[in-house]
Amino acid sequence: MAPIALTIAGSDSGGGAGIQADLKAMSALGVYGASVITAVTAQNTRAVTAVHGIPLDIIAAQIDAVLTDLDVGAIKIGMLATPEIIHSVADRIAGFSGPVVLDPVMIAKSGDALLAEEAVQTMRDVLLPRATVLTPNLPEAACLLGGAPADTLDEMIAQGHDLCEMGADAVLMKGGHGKGDICHDLLVTTEGVTSEFTAPRQQTHNTHGTGCTLSSSIAAGLAKGLSLTDAVAQAHGYLQGAITQADGLNIGQGHGPVHHFHRVWSA
Are 54 and 27 in contact (CB under 8 A)? Predict the structure, then answer.
């Protein structure tokens, strides 16, 4: 049987992020992707112009439909938008025993908010302790901690440990918003182990959906039975290739998407 991963996230009508990016990444990595849509967004490479939250009973019904039939190996959670949606998702996955990748989606690449301000505390209290791995960028980590974004690797490690103390088993501190020619991603665990993943910082505006793609790629690796470190390493390498070929896609007039199928066809 093919490995299966489930993404619980919002839909991006432009196809570069959210559910669409998750399913593309999972498929590209040889994993069958199932999906639960939490919100429908009207967005493209330039802006998010509308957001419609899916009714709570429909979100719950989607999760139940998938988990009672499909042998899901890992769950990725992305955009949840409101405290009510966060509680609904947490309740429905309470009996799931596999790994959970939590991507605390807060702001779209365009700068538009995707998480209500009052939902941040709910995410801290309800979902963060459920995460096998949390995957925040530097502004998201700072928001969850109520502080300033990390400026140095030592500060990234310290914030990763602080988030682990809030309940996450591990935290992947993503350095895409950092400075310097080298981008550093740091995997911090409750055991105090830190693994570093580095890559040259690529000069491109076409990075729409990178966070979604990375988190769903990690979930794909975990669904295939990889260790967390190996799943992150696989996802990191895959995403770097997707960013490298992003400019060739020439999609949209703003922040274009990465090339999810760069290993299948060249842009």
Answer: no
Angle CA 170–176–177, to nearest 5: 105
Report residue 111: phi and psi, to 5°.
100, -5
Backbone φ and ψ of 89, nearest 5°: -65, -45
**How far apart are alpha carbons 250 and 258 in whole angstroms?**
10
pLDDT digits (tens, 9 = 90+) for 72-87: 999 999 999 889 999 9
Is 95 an annotated catalytic residue? no
Among 24, 76, 109, 174, the active-site one is 174
Is 164 tagged catalytic? no
Residue extents of the structural domains in the chain: 4-145+207-249
Say which of 14, 18, 73, 211 is annotated catalytic.
211
The per-residue pLDDT for 222 is 98
Catalytic residue flag (residue 212): yes
pLDDT the model gives residue 118: 79
**4-145+207-249: CATH topology:** UDP-N-acetylmuramoyl-L-alanine:D-glutamate ligase (3.40.1190)
Query: Tens digits of per-residue pLDDT, 107-152?
Result: 766 666 667 777 888 999 999 999 999 999 999 999 899 999 999 9
